[in-house]
Amino acid sequence: MNPITQILNEYPVMIIDGAMATELERMGCDLHDDLWSAKILLERPELIKQVHAEYFAAGADCAITASYQSTIEGFAARGIPETDAIRLIQTSVELAAQARDEFWAHEENRLHRPKPLVAASIGPYGASLADGSEYRGHYGLTEDELISFHRPRMKALIESGADLLACETIPCLSEAKAITRLLEEFPGTYAWISFSAKDGRHISEGTPISECAALLDSCSQIAAIGINCTPIEHIPPLIEEIKRAASKPIIAYPNSGEQYDPVTKTWKGAACENNFGKSAQGWYENGVSLIGGCCRTKPADIQAIADWAKTLKTT
């Protein structure tokens, strides 16, 4: 049985963690780098483990690994051989699993929450370019070329023992198709696919998200479909579009509400004024069962979701 189903059979909502980069920057890490948070796998891996631990303590039922921008190509640009790059990619899973196991060994609330999962992050091809392509998606690559790009990292993450894959910030339907085809090479492996979106109806490249959801709904290894790394105001209409086209669990973990400029690599505007827990309640009432935060969200935001979710689990 896929791990998401196992949790949702017992609990009404599964809580995903929040941003890794925001917390690493708070700890003093410089992420102005093409490797982004993957750079810290090289420099200060213990800080990544600490961030995971903070999110588990805040109430997260699932950690997303620091492998979003960890690619063989990206590490090769730093002169790191493929074997060492694969080892670094697998380290991202080991850090999350260690943090989870240490947390769970001392967790006093085991009867009221599931043992957390480790979801290995698979960022889109565009993330490896470090030029904002994950918010455009017009790569000019075939599905077969995308499969060839994703295969080594997917294989490494699966072999590292991750509970499932988080295929996230996917901007184009062709990449989602490539991922679902590639999953067939790894029977028994489950993944969620979450898209980046340009508005309340379309993913970043312009395809209606309802079309994407309809296609993925028939894929047995896709455990959930949804949205991440997208402005918070787009989430409600996107949820409606996914519900209309698919029956799989829906996942939503948007940005804080600030707007990312991929050209300057800076954030603009203000964070959402609503409490993240209050927003999460609205998403849940509209059909979302996996809820968390993406860029610029913090453990306090996940705590707000967890505090609200406790009222569901105890009624």
UniProtKB/TrEMBL annotation:
Q: Name one GO molecular function term.
A: zinc ion binding
Pfam families per the UniProt record, alphabetical: S-methyl_trans
InterPro entries noted in UniProt? BHMT-like, HCY_dom, HCY_dom_sf, Hcy_S-methyltransferase
From the UniProt record, list the coiled-coil ranges. Answer: none
Residues that coordinate or bind Zn(2+): C229, C294, C295
Key words, A-Z: Metal-binding, Methyltransferase, Transferase, Zinc
Q: What Gene Ontology terms for biological process does this UniProt record contain? A: methionine biosynthetic process; methylation; S-methylmethionine cycle
Q: Which residues form the Hcy-binding domain?
A: 2-309
Q: How is the cofactor bound?
A: Binds 1 zinc ion per subunit.
Query: What's the cofactor?
Result: Zn(2+)
Q: What is this protein called?
A: S-methylmethionine:homocysteine methyltransferase
Q: Which organism is it from?
A: Bacillus velezensis (strain DSM 23117 / BGSC 10A6 / LMG 26770 / FZB42)
This protein's gene is called mmuM
